[in-house]
Amino acid sequence: MFFATAPAAFQASLRRPAHSGSAHAVERFLSDALLSARQAGTTYTQDDTSFTLSLDMPGIAKEHLRIAIDGAVVRIQSKDDAPRRYRAAYELPQEVDSALSEAKLENGVLTLKLAKKVPVDTSAELTIQ
Q: What pLDDT, in 10s, does the model give residues 110-123?
């Protein structure tokens, strides 16, 4: 599997690359080599309620893309029958609410509006005996 690290503009807001471990050194090397071509067509912004990620996806139809959200990690990949191959993963600084998020592919640009998950306070008060 090849996972692209986030472009330099993302590094300030990302905790770490989505791939880790020394066992994947060759995959990281190849992924980094391909990253420079992807960086030019990638933008990232955020506000109080959401992250917006825009990626150039020329030649790929929406039927050929798969987007998965797992906590704070967003994985984008082309399906096997797609005319072009694409695979990337981004780890965001906060978990994403997939139910409130949306994706739009228009004129070769994939725009993901990823809603930030509202943190839930799970603290409990203990009675002192």
A: 999 999 998 888 88
In a domain, 127, yes or no: no
The domain spanning residue 50 has which CATH number? 2.60.40.790
Rg (CA), the chain: 17
Number of domains in the chain: 1
What is the pLDDT, as a whole number, of residue 59? 87
Asked whether 101 and 69 are in contact (CB, 8 A), the reply is yes
State the residue range of the domain holding 57: 8-116
- Give dist(CA 38, CA 4) in Å, integer: 9
Residue 7: helix, strand or coil by DSSP? coil
pLDDT score of 104: 97
CA-to-CA dists, residue 112 to 23, 53, 87, 93, angstroms: 31, 5, 15, 16
Do residues 14 and 73 touch, judged by C-beta distance below 8 A?
no
